[in-house]
């Protein structure tokens, strides 16, 4: 489940689910992504961050943050996940996986593959 809810507080998820709060930032000609992972009781599970040199599109970076988070979770055997993002455009792009017109298509397909 991927959601985009600006201006809301952290909400408890169902038991055995992991919540991943993703974000991206741009610094000149490079971008960075980061995620904080918490369990259903809001306990810290882990964190992830990565710098992408040469990528400065905020939407693409947010999609990459989602992809990297899904991969992080999969590598740790966590399949029940809620991803929260503040980038509605990135969330919308993930719904258009069959559209050949999206410049974000490959990164979106990577997200589906990781799932």
Automatic annotation (TrEMBL):
Residue ranges constituting the RNase H type-1 domain according to the UniProt record: 21-95
CDD domains per the UniProt record, alphabetical: RNase_H_like
InterPro entries hit by this protein: RNase_H-like_dom_plant, RNase_H-like_EbsB-rel, RNaseH-like_sf, RNaseH_domain, RNaseH_sf
SUPFAM superfamilies for the chain: Ribonuclease H-like
UniProt GO MF annotations: nucleic acid binding; RNA-DNA hybrid ribonuclease activity
PANTHER family: BNAC02G40300D PROTEIN, REVERSE TRANSCRIPTASE-LIKE PROTEIN
Protein name in UniProt: RNase H type-1 domain-containing protein
